[in-house]
Amino acid sequence: MQLEKNKNRYLQIAIGLVYLWFGGLKFFSKHSPAEDLAIDTINQLTHFLIPMEISIYLLAIWETGVGLCLLFNLFKKNTIRITAVHMILTFSPLIFFPQLIFEENVFSLTLLGQYIIKNIIILAALGVLWSEVREEEKKLVSDTRKEEEEHSVLGLIKLFKLR
Protein backbone atom coordinates (compact mmCIF):
# COMPACT_ATOMS: atom_id res chain seq x y z
CA MET A 1 0.00 0.00 0.00
CA GLN A 2 1.30 3.46 -0.94
CA LEU A 3 0.39 5.07 2.41
CA GLU A 4 2.30 2.44 4.36
CA LYS A 5 5.35 2.94 2.15
CA ASN A 6 5.35 6.74 2.52
CA LYS A 7 4.07 7.24 6.07
CA ASN A 8 7.41 8.55 7.37
CA ARG A 9 7.71 10.89 4.42
CA TYR A 10 4.28 12.35 5.27
CA LEU A 11 5.45 12.78 8.86
CA GLN A 12 8.58 14.55 7.62
CA ILE A 13 6.53 16.87 5.39
CA ALA A 14 4.14 17.72 8.25
CA ILE A 15 7.00 18.66 10.57
CA GLY A 16 8.63 20.61 7.73
CA LEU A 17 5.46 22.63 7.15
CA VAL A 18 5.16 23.49 10.85
CA TYR A 19 8.79 24.60 10.95
CA LEU A 20 8.49 26.63 7.77
CA TRP A 21 5.33 28.33 9.00
CA PHE A 22 6.51 29.09 12.55
CA GLY A 23 9.97 30.11 11.34
CA GLY A 24 8.52 32.32 8.62
CA LEU A 25 6.43 34.21 11.16
CA LYS A 26 9.57 35.15 13.08
CA PHE A 27 10.88 37.16 10.12
CA PHE A 28 8.03 39.64 10.70
CA SER A 29 8.10 41.45 14.02
CA LYS A 30 5.26 40.61 16.41
CA HIS A 31 3.66 38.05 14.08
CA SER A 32 4.81 35.04 16.08
CA PRO A 33 2.95 34.51 19.34
CA ALA A 34 6.16 33.06 20.82
CA GLU A 35 8.49 35.84 19.66
CA ASP A 36 9.02 37.49 23.04
CA LEU A 37 9.48 34.15 24.76
CA ALA A 38 11.93 33.06 22.06
CA ILE A 39 13.99 36.25 22.41
CA ASP A 40 14.01 36.01 26.21
CA THR A 41 15.01 32.35 26.06
CA ILE A 42 17.83 33.01 23.58
CA ASN A 43 19.02 35.82 25.85
CA GLN A 44 19.13 33.41 28.80
CA LEU A 45 20.82 30.63 26.82
CA THR A 46 23.48 32.93 25.35
CA HIS A 47 23.86 35.22 28.38
CA PHE A 48 22.79 38.19 26.22
CA LEU A 49 25.70 37.72 23.78
CA ILE A 50 23.44 37.91 20.73
CA PRO A 51 21.49 41.15 20.29
CA MET A 52 17.77 40.43 20.42
CA GLU A 53 17.14 42.06 17.02
CA ILE A 54 19.52 39.52 15.50
CA SER A 55 18.61 36.50 17.63
CA ILE A 56 15.04 36.29 16.38
CA TYR A 57 16.23 36.39 12.76
CA LEU A 58 18.80 33.67 13.45
CA LEU A 59 16.03 31.56 14.95
CA ALA A 60 13.82 32.30 11.93
CA ILE A 61 16.61 31.20 9.59
CA TRP A 62 17.20 28.05 11.65
CA GLU A 63 13.51 27.11 11.69
CA THR A 64 12.80 27.88 8.03
CA GLY A 65 16.01 26.09 7.04
CA VAL A 66 14.88 23.01 8.95
CA GLY A 67 11.45 23.29 7.36
CA LEU A 68 12.85 23.46 3.84
CA CYS A 69 15.28 20.60 4.44
CA LEU A 70 12.50 18.39 5.79
CA LEU A 71 10.12 19.32 2.99
CA PHE A 72 12.66 18.65 0.25
CA ASN A 73 14.28 15.68 2.02
CA LEU A 74 17.71 17.35 2.11
CA PHE A 75 20.53 16.37 4.50
CA LYS A 76 18.05 14.20 6.39
CA LYS A 77 20.35 12.86 9.10
CA ASN A 78 21.83 16.26 10.01
CA THR A 79 18.46 17.98 9.70
CA ILE A 80 16.96 15.56 12.21
CA ARG A 81 19.90 16.20 14.54
CA ILE A 82 19.61 19.99 14.48
CA THR A 83 15.84 19.76 14.76
CA ALA A 84 16.18 17.58 17.85
CA VAL A 85 18.60 20.11 19.37
CA HIS A 86 16.10 22.88 18.64
CA MET A 87 13.24 20.89 20.13
CA ILE A 88 15.20 20.21 23.31
CA LEU A 89 16.04 23.90 23.63
CA THR A 90 12.35 24.80 23.29
CA PHE A 91 11.83 23.22 26.71
CA SER A 92 14.28 25.59 28.44
CA PRO A 93 11.55 28.17 29.24
CA LEU A 94 10.15 25.57 31.65
CA ILE A 95 13.26 26.28 33.73
CA PHE A 96 13.87 29.95 32.92
CA PHE A 97 10.30 31.26 32.94
CA PRO A 98 8.00 28.86 34.81
CA GLN A 99 5.68 31.77 35.69
CA LEU A 100 4.89 32.13 31.96
CA ILE A 101 4.35 28.41 31.41
CA PHE A 102 2.33 27.25 34.40
CA GLU A 103 -0.77 28.73 35.98
CA GLU A 104 -1.65 27.37 39.42
CA ASN A 105 0.32 24.11 39.33
CA VAL A 106 2.45 22.00 36.99
CA PHE A 107 -0.62 20.42 35.43
CA SER A 108 -2.24 23.74 34.56
CA LEU A 109 -0.48 25.19 31.53
CA THR A 110 -0.81 28.62 30.02
CA LEU A 111 -1.20 28.91 26.24
CA LEU A 112 2.59 29.37 25.98
CA GLY A 113 3.03 26.25 28.10
CA GLN A 114 0.81 24.27 25.76
CA TYR A 115 2.78 25.67 22.81
CA ILE A 116 5.95 24.23 24.35
CA ILE A 117 4.60 20.91 25.61
CA LYS A 118 3.18 20.01 22.19
CA ASN A 119 6.81 19.72 21.06
CA ILE A 120 6.86 16.29 22.70
CA ILE A 121 4.91 15.13 19.64
CA ILE A 122 7.54 16.55 17.29
CA LEU A 123 10.33 14.91 19.31
CA ALA A 124 8.55 11.56 19.07
CA ALA A 125 8.10 12.00 15.32
CA LEU A 126 11.80 12.86 14.99
CA GLY A 127 12.55 9.62 16.80
CA VAL A 128 10.58 7.73 14.16
CA LEU A 129 12.43 9.53 11.36
CA TRP A 130 15.77 8.89 13.08
CA SER A 131 15.06 5.16 13.30
CA GLU A 132 14.32 5.20 9.57
CA VAL A 133 17.68 6.88 8.87
CA ARG A 134 19.46 4.28 11.00
CA GLU A 135 17.70 1.43 9.17
CA GLU A 136 18.69 2.94 5.80
CA GLU A 137 22.30 3.20 6.98
CA LYS A 138 22.33 -0.43 8.14
CA LYS A 139 20.92 -1.55 4.81
CA LEU A 140 23.51 0.50 2.93
CA VAL A 141 26.35 -1.00 5.00
CA SER A 142 24.95 -4.49 4.49
CA ASP A 143 24.60 -3.97 0.73
CA THR A 144 28.13 -2.56 0.53
CA ARG A 145 29.52 -5.58 2.37
CA LYS A 146 27.70 -7.97 0.07
CA GLU A 147 29.04 -6.08 -2.93
CA GLU A 148 32.58 -6.20 -1.54
CA GLU A 149 32.26 -9.93 -0.88
CA GLU A 150 31.01 -10.52 -4.41
CA HIS A 151 33.91 -8.50 -5.84
CA SER A 152 36.45 -10.35 -3.73
CA VAL A 153 35.01 -13.73 -4.72
CA LEU A 154 34.95 -12.71 -8.39
CA GLY A 155 38.52 -11.48 -8.02
CA LEU A 156 39.63 -14.83 -6.63
CA ILE A 157 37.86 -16.69 -9.42
CA LYS A 158 39.54 -14.49 -12.04
CA LEU A 159 42.91 -14.97 -10.33
CA PHE A 160 42.64 -18.76 -10.44
CA LYS A 161 41.38 -18.71 -14.04
CA LEU A 162 44.44 -16.74 -15.13
CA ARG A 163 46.81 -19.40 -13.76
From TrEMBL:
The regions listed as transmembrane in this protein's record are 9-28, 54-75, 82-101, 107-130
Keywords in UniProt for this one? Membrane, Transmembrane, Transmembrane helix
- Please give the name of this protein: Doxx family protein
UniProt organism field: Euzebyella saccharophila
